[in-house]
Amino acid sequence: MEVTKREVRMSKVQLPTGEEPRKGFESLAAMDSGDEFRVDCVFVSQLAVIELSEINMMRQEAFSNVSTLTGLTNELISFEQEINLLPGKTTSDKVLFRAYKGNVLTGYALVVIGWPEQGEWVLQHLVINPEYRLQGIGSKIVEKVETFALRSEVASDRMFAIPLEEKGAIFWQNHGYRIESSRQLVKIADLDHELVVYRKDL
């Protein structure tokens, strides 16, 4: 039986409180009852309004001190523009990996399944809460995404990444990603945006 992108499944787990994750979520991290750090994932199409508000608030804080964006003509795009950045993909192709410490959203990665080609994944954007930077959270998120990419029913052994800022490019290089290409992808506010794409074989 063919498994569609909507039917991605992972084994059931429990949160440190003993509760089961909310519908649409599965934990990808070993729970540490000491700091309650966890990484969950959900399809973008499943996000509730309050969850979108939480993400947008963190994004505003995260980018308030970013002076140089890579490949976006130094313009900050909104989360709505972010999830629609890559052409030909629907919200059912897009998964949000979110890192929490306790009840605080500490970062997220937007992952698109089936880009650039079918069977390939791209870590489109990785955003970390500024209050939790330099704590290895970005590395933990990337590790969970890569692990899931290998074991998922829509598995991939190749990951791509699109840095949002210059420091992000250094981050990806330090994690084994190398420049694949620059692609003229979209128009935002009538401006062309060429995104630098990094690649890693898992």
Give a summary of the structure in a few sentences.
With 202 residues, the chain is α+β, with helices and mostly antiparallel strands. The chain has helices at residues 49-63, 79-83, 137-151, 166-174, and strands spanning 26-27, 37-43, 94-101, 104-113, 121-128, 158-161, 178-188, 191-201. It has one domain (26-201): Gcn5-related N-acetyltransferase (GNAT) (Aminopeptidase, 3-Layer(aba) Sandwich), CATH 3.40.630.30.
Features:
globular; 202 residues; 4 helices; 8-stranded mixed β-sheet; alpha+beta
Indicate the mean pLDDT. 71
Given this structure, which CATH class is correct? Alpha Beta
Approximate shape? globular
- N-to-C SSE series? EEHHEEEHEHEE
Question: Which band does the percent of strand residues land in?
Answer: 25-35%
What does this structure look like?
The chain has an eight-stranded mixed β-sheet with strand order 1-2-3-4-5-6-8-7, sandwiched between helices. The longest helix has 15 residues, at 49-63. It has a single domain, classed as Aminopeptidase (3-Layer(aba) Sandwich). The chain is globular, with a radius of gyration of 16 Å. The protein is α+β, with helices and mostly antiparallel strands. The chain has helices at residues 49-63, 79-83, 137-151, 166-174; strands at residues 26-27, 37-43, 94-101, 104-113, 121-128, 158-161, 178-188, 191-201. The protein contains four helices and eight strands.
